Amino acid sequence: MSKHIVSEHEDIRIDKFLSNIVSDLSRSEIGKLFAKGQILVNSVVVKPSYKIKLNDEIDLSYNESKAPESIVNIPMIYEDDCVIVIDKPAGILSHSKGAQNLEQTVESSIKDKLIDYDYNRAGIVHRLDRATSGVMICAKTRDSYRWLQSQFSQRKVTKVYFAVVSGNFTVPSAIIDLPIMRDQKNKSRFKVDSRGKNSITKYSVVSDNSKYSLLELKPKTGRTHQLRVHLRYLKHPIVGDTFYEGEPADRLYLHASKLTIRLISGELKTFESKIPDQFFEKMKYN
Hints:
Layout: E1 2-5, H1 14-21, H2 27-35, E2 39-41, E3 44-45, E4 57-60, E5 76-79, E6 83-88, H3 106-110, E7 133-139, H4 142-153, E8 158-166, E9 173-177, E10 180-182, E11 190-192, E12 200-208, E13 212-219, H5 226-233, E14 254-262, E15 268-272, H6 277-282
């Protein structure tokens, strides 16, 4: 249970008021509480359009104890007044999926370092899949957030990944130019389809053995699951990517190794994360 007494900002919608003061719930989560009748004003259930008044007593019924705690220490690569660059471990979500933040995320871990936090998914400029490790840049200010996001949307960011995949390649280096769209039969997955969005990945074989190949991957576009979908389509799924028919393993063998981007100061910076030792251990297979 969370209780709030209105001492200012009267005569505004209650949903807007709550989205600004309740930091551990997203707007969509607050909306779900309204729909379930779990938000009361002066002991009466209200709608999101209710306009608050001075001295209104607002009660939200939800389990605050389930808010995320920083259980995993996420290594930091770089920090200044505008950005934080982290080395995300595999297994950590970039941001909450909307279930009242029941687990640690990158978003919850950097929250205390942000200068402002009054917008959805504050600080999260781009995302890495839960199972992917590596370099991730976050914005500490709203201006930096907009600046960095514009570079991602305009494809001015250079990203380099490494992956261990099943099988060997007859062509050591090539560009994969295959459109991707959401799979309508399973909307959590994506697939190569001529009706999809333009998606381009350059791959180069770094090394191989009798079973696996270590690839350097340079995505030119940033579609969801792009690298995973492209490699599955080539019948070389990423090791550990059982979601896309990959061989079961102790982790997803996909790592964001390098990110080059221009900061709001105008400085072009490259941030790097060491390829995990597990990748090289996998390549010792005979």
